[in-house]
Design goal:
With 86 residues, this protein is of the alpha+beta class. It has two domains: 39 residues; 37 residues, no CATH class. It contains two helices and six strands; from the N terminus they run ααββββββ. The strands form three sheets. It has a two-stranded antiparallel sheet. Strands 3-4 form a two-stranded antiparallel sheet. A two-stranded antiparallel sheet has the order 5-6. β1 and β2 form a beta hairpin.
């Protein structure tokens, strides 16, 4: 039994729209890469500012996160991964 969500079950018009040219794939890949770089730069900038960590309650209140009695902050370790620091 064919999958009703598969492109072959959707008809020739929809199948035609699912095809991409190499140029379209490259343009999509380029745009995705640029967005990923921009996002990672924003994260890196945030990490450099050593932000405080908060829990957002359902009523909108922000509660600070504490580790061993001190407010937690986000920093990068030697591997460049975001970790909690006191």
């Amino acid at each position: 039994m064919a999958n009703p969500d598969s492109p072959s079950a959707l008809g020739p018009i929809v199948r035609e729209r699912l095809r991409m040219t190499v140029d379209e794939v490259q343009a999509y890949r380029s745009a995705y890469s640029q967005n990923l770089v921009a996002w990672s730069n924003r994260v890196r900038q945030c990490m450099d500012e050593k932000p405080r960590m908060y829990v957002l309650r359902s009523d909108g209140a922000q509660l600070p996160v504490f580790f061993n009695g001190q407010e937690g902050t986000l920093v990068r370790n030697a591997s460049g991964q975001a970790v909690c620091s006191n």
